Amino acid sequence: MINIRTSKHMLREINSMELIRLAEADPDIFVLDADLMSSSGLKAFAGKYPDRAVNCGIQEANMMGVAGGLSAVGFIPVVHSFAAYAVRRTLDQIFMAGCYNQQNIKIIGTDPGVCSAANGGTHMTFEDIAIMRALPGITIVDPTDEVMLKSLLPQIIQAHGVAYIRLFRKNKRVIYRDDTEFTLGKAQVVRPGTDITIIAEGPLMVFEAIQAAEKLEAQGISAQVVDVVSLKPLDEQLILETAAKTGAVLTAENHSITGGLGSAVAELLADHRLGIPFGRIGFPEMVGETGTVDYILQRFGMTHAEIAAHAITLVGEKDEQ
Amino acid sequence: MNILSQHRSLELHRAAEFIRLHSMEAIGSCGAGHVGGVLSIAELTALLYQEVLRYDPKYPEDPARDRVVLSKGHCGPALYAALALAGFFPMEELLTLNQNGSSLPSHCNMHKTPGIDIGTGSLGQGASLAAGMALGLKKRSSASRVFLILGDGECNEGQVWEAVLFAAHQQLDNLIAYVDVNKQQLDGYTEDICSLGDLRSKFESFGWRAIQADGHNIDELHNATQEILRETGRPGIVIMDTVKGKGWSGVDGKPGVHHVPISSEQLEEARKEITHRIESLTAQLEGIHD
């Protein structure tokens, strides 16, 4: 049984506290923000290390280039903006500084997918995973809770290269036991099952997937829930094993169904000739709109109810095969 | 004031002609290239690599070196000729420009070429990369300086102006920029495409020290550079008045010379013109004592 609880801190606070802790030991960590330090929680870092934090103002493209320059002289820049602007607005800057020049840049994009809620469609990013996944050598994570963030952040800081952290900054929900360890590139089985695998990412959809699995259990279907942990690199081995074992796969992501987790898993299954019942839960081809997270997930058929219904269909197809 | 002797000035002018010659040989060897903008920065690259910059060609990664960011990255051949003359790699490598597997791509790549401090080619981005380097070096209390070379057409890019605001706000007095005002961009004259107005007053109003100089006059360029290097508390820029295609009559000041094919006859013509000037500068140098 998963013990879901509420933290005293939002993920943004945990993120800033962890960066402060890491910066004590590593004098090269340098934080950049684009006039969102109050939103990102990085004001705490800037307060602690004023010499290693710069608020660039509202200029994300320049900020990403500055990060590349800082990296070129040995710093480890940690760059923040809302996911929409950290990624969508600065793609070529990330490519030039991060990929072409192979610099060491850690990008934090807060409120990915639907998480920006009332800020609405301009701030919602349903395409950031797809964009970043296509860039060579980039690590992408969407920490499900503070336990995962605390475990992954030191690994991300330590590994040279570009990492993109999707961060639901106001999330307080905790799913994992405090002592759970995570490894970049390794997925996590959150709940074992035998009839179907639901592979989910991030705070919203892992939670929805767990609830869906509980619902399915009541109907006699045993669903294995896998938290993908790292969207890139993908834990191919675990996904292939769980797909072979359960014989059906459903993905659930706080992102467009194009180019994100669902696409990554579909590519993997196809590459390995695993022709099993498969489905994707995520945003259809659309832009976001203002609304609460729950409202939007409901409106676009992404809650645990729809996940469970889709899973039942897939399990049914399995029986027909 | 550190003023160049007449002898040194002639030497640097001759170095600029060597950069022209070797750039043209390199571009000629692959049949086409960004001739106009390469020829317009020959004096600047000669001055930087022969007189101003601190570097060790045997140790290109030296943390204490000055950095160069050629933000108008398509003009790599001018930089490669300057680097080869400075001893970063053998001169004969210049003739591999843009060939399959070459370490000299027309747009700079730090992972391919010794002496290239950062890859460029997507216009506007070098400005931010240079500002980031300058910020980092200042934070490390390094004596290294960052030399940024912008194109005038490149100043169409909004990112340049973001970086210009940023560098002034961060008081990056270890950042010195040059803008190569050769008045043309790919599709035509900058005036006709997206007029830049008065660049000097623009930079000044953004908080920079800005000095106008003839970009083909080594003494003016040198004096402007020295003046800016003495500046504290703000970055500086030399607004270089240049001629696109300077130094070979086939393209000198002509329109449509951003990227042109070079036939072996044209290369021979350029070679003759530039060699003639080199010989004349050598004769002048022999006539005076340093």
Write the layout of secondary structure elements.
The complex is a heterodimer of chains A (321) and B (290).
Chain A: E1 5-6, H1 11-25, E2 29-33, H2 37-40, H3 43-48, E3 53-55, H4 60-72, E4 76-82, H5 83-88, H6 91-100, E5 106-110, H7 128-133, E6 139-141, H8 146-158, E7 163-167, E8 173-174, E9 188-191, E10 196-200, H9 202-218, E11 223-227, E12 230-232, H10 236-246, E13 249-256, H11 261-271, E14 278-283, H12 293-299, H13 304-320
Parallel strand pairs in A: 2-3, 2-4, 4-5, 5-7, 6-7, 10-11, 10-13, 13-14
Antiparallel strand pairs in A: 1-8, 6-12, 9-11
Helix pairs in contact in A: 1-8, 4-6, 9-13
Chain B: H1 6-30, E1 32-33, H2 35-39, H3 42-52, E2 67-70, H4 76-85, H5 125-139, E3 146-151, H6 158-169, E4 175-181, E5 184-185, E6 188-189, H7 190-193, H8 199-205, E7 209-214, H9 218-229, E8 236-241, E9 260-261, H10 264-287
Parallel strand pairs in B: 2-3, 3-4, 4-8, 7-8
Antiparallel strand pairs in B: 1-9, 5-6
What does this entry look like structurally?
Chain A has 321 residues and is an alpha/beta fold. Chain A folds into 2 domains: 8-174, Thiamin diphosphate (ThDP)-binding fold, Pyr/PP domains (Rossmann fold); 188-320, Rossmann fold (3-Layer(aba) Sandwich). Chain A has helices at 11-25, 37-40, 43-48, 60-72, 83-88, 91-100, 128-133, 146-158, 202-218, 236-246, 261-271, 293-299, 304-320, and strands spanning 5-6, 29-33, 53-55, 76-82, 106-110, 139-141, 163-167, 173-174, 188-191, 196-200, 223-227, 230-232, 249-256, 278-283. In chain A, the strands form 3 sheets. In chain A, strands 3-2-4-5-7-6-12 form a 7-stranded mixed sheet, sandwiched between helices. Chain A is globular, with a radius of gyration of 19 Å. The two termini of chain A are 32 Å apart. In chain A, 58% of the residues are buried. The mean pLDDT of chain A is 97. By secondary structure, chain B is an alpha/beta fold. Helix content of chain B is 43%, strand content 13%. In chain B, helix 6 (158-169) links the parallel strand 3 and strand 4 (175-181). In chain B, helix 1 (6-30) packs across helix 3, helix 1 (6-30) runs antiparallel to helix 10 (264-287) and helix 3 packs parallel to helix 4 (76-85). The longest helix of chain B has 25 residues, at 6-30. Chain B is globular, with a radius of gyration of 18 Å. The model of chain B has no long low-confidence stretch (mean pLDDT 97). Chain A binds chain B through residues 30, 51-52, 54, 56-57, 59, 61-75, 77, 92-93, 95-97, 100-102, and chain B through 63, 67, 109-111, 117-122, 124-125, 127-137, 139-140, 142, 158-159, 162-163, 165-166, 169-170.
